[in-house]
Amino acid sequence: LFSTSGSVALGVKRGFCVAAAVEDGKVKVGDVRKGRVRSFQEIPHTGRSGWVNLLRFWREDRFRQLHKHMERTFSALGPIYRENVGTLSSVNILLPADVAELFQSEGLHPRRMTLQPWATHREIRQHSKGVFLKNGEEWRSDRLQLNKEVMMSGAVQRFLPLLDEVARDFCRMLQVRVEKEGRSLTMDPSPDLFRFALEASCHVIYGERIGLFSSSPSLESQKFIWAVERMLTTTPPLLYLPPRLLLCLSAPLWTQHATAWDHIFSHAEARIQRGYQRLASSQGGGSVAGAAGGQYPGVLGQLMEKGQLSLDLIKANITELMAGGVDTTAVPLQFALFELGRNPEVQEKVRQQVRTSWAQAGGDPQKALQGAPLLKGTIKEVLRLYPVGITVQRYPVKDIVLQNYHIPAGTMVQACLYPMGRSSEVFEDPLRFDPTRWSSGREEGRRAEGSGFRSLAFGFGARQCVGRRIAENEMQLFLMHMLLSFHLSVSSSEDLKTTATLILQPETPPRITFSRLSGAPI
Ligand code: HEM
């Protein structure tokens, strides 16, 4: 029983009697009958001084192994712990029931980690106008505009054929390369996957193909891929140090970060200018879509045509969609090829379903995906074992209680996806790669409280990943065409070592053998 207006709240969680007085939306900690909500200070922690912890993190290279550090800390301290590192403090949680509590608490401020203090550089200031770093009402109204163009089912129907075209072209390109070698080709596919993801993003966002599958892709695109990678790897230190200290300790790092953003912005800027020229020439003639011969003009074209966001906001949001849309799909695809390669039986099962669905869909990619739910299961399984972001953060606007501890409003609480995905408390046989575990009717863990909160790689609620539908469809279409065309294998089935920058990546990209299947449809 929870009563926000009254003075007492009682609840039973995991055998504890949770009891707290609630006044004006604030949890008052104290003994009430059997139970006592324990104070924030009592939450197990990894050491009180953020600066000592920061030194430890540096000495032991824990930033790049943060996911493993979290796994170890949960097994030592239990399902909730506090950690201070430099200027950053967080409460870390592991179990779906607590994550459900966090995300569902009424009136949560939809805010996450912010780089606002760093917004001294021109381009980063511009970037912070996009949805990623904004909060509150301003965020909500921009986000609703963006949702119409990238999240709603009408938008998915518009951009799905564009993603399908890119995925098919990629397979054709690979088939030609495999044929040159005979019947199979063994390689590190990561550079090609980055090109695939950039080509797909540009097609959906700008309505434009940029020719990355040609034998000599442009230098500009290579530079963009490099810039996104630099931006991601140089971000984490900025989150833990106050600006002045960082500038003293590592000015080159800051310069690299700012230069990477400059590049990402100039890449978007050039295309936005072109979009405006197109819009200007189409005025009088109707629409950007009209100017492009009635075709879907991409997200940028749609936003410009509707004119509900200012030029500055369109620019900031388009840049974020571009910056957030390449590594985030290219890296999980590396993991997906690896896991399918080292689990041939799983691969065959998914392929059989894809073949049947493809044959029945009559060339309609959306229908083909709908008929092959194991593709979706494969993506969920990849993101369970290798979540792109190892945590999702929230700052509750009201006091809440987690694991019977009082969490004051404004605390950063992180749902720790990597340790959750590999926890035997949450998943049966967690290290087994099994796309069928997500099949309807077989949702293991239904017994567990909050079991719906086990697949959170894209976040949750109104603030969830705005690129989710693009990413899911892009990755599923890619895997669909790969499985129709190639048999995948790996020479070593040893676990991949991983490293966490801003996203989780393999330490060394896996090598995959692509063998041509006879009768491939492309
Ligand atoms: C597998 C691929 C991806 C994963 C796992 C992923 C994950 C996430 C997560 C966890 C968040 C925070 C959500 C929350 O706090 O609840 C997020 C936000 C965001 N993502 Fe993604 N993402 C992916 C792909 C993409 C793509 C393809 C794009 C762009 C086309 C994109 C653009 C963004 C943006 C702009 C935000 C901020 C949204 C907001 O705060 O309103 N992401 N993503």
From TrEMBL:
Major localization listed first in the record, in broad terms: mitochondrion
E.C. number(s) listed in UniProt: 1.14.15.4
Top class in the EC scheme: oxidoreductase
PROSITE patterns named among the record's database cross-references: CYTOCHROME_P450
Binding site for heme: 465
Transmembrane parts of this sequence: none
Source superkingdom: Eukaryota
Cofactor annotation: heme
GO MF terms held by the record: heme binding; iron ion binding; steroid 11-beta-monooxygenase activity
One GO term describing the cellular component: mitochondrial inner membrane
InterPro entries in the cross-refs: CYP11_CYP27_families, Cyt_P450, Cyt_P450_CS, Cyt_P450_E_grp-I, Cyt_P450_sf
Keywords from the named record: Heme, Iron, Membrane, Metal-binding, Mitochondrion, Monooxygenase, Oxidoreductase, Steroidogenesis, Transit peptide
Compartments where found: Mitochondrion membrane
The keyword ATP-binding appears for this protein: no
GO BP field: C21-steroid hormone biosynthetic process; cellular response to peptide hormone stimulus; cholesterol metabolic process; cortisol metabolic process; glucocorticoid biosynthetic process
Family per record: Belongs to the cytochrome P450 family.
Identification of the protein by name: steroid 11beta-monooxygenase
Species of origin: Amphiprion percula (Orange clownfish)
Upper taxonomic lineage: Eukaryota, Metazoa, Chordata, Craniata, Vertebrata
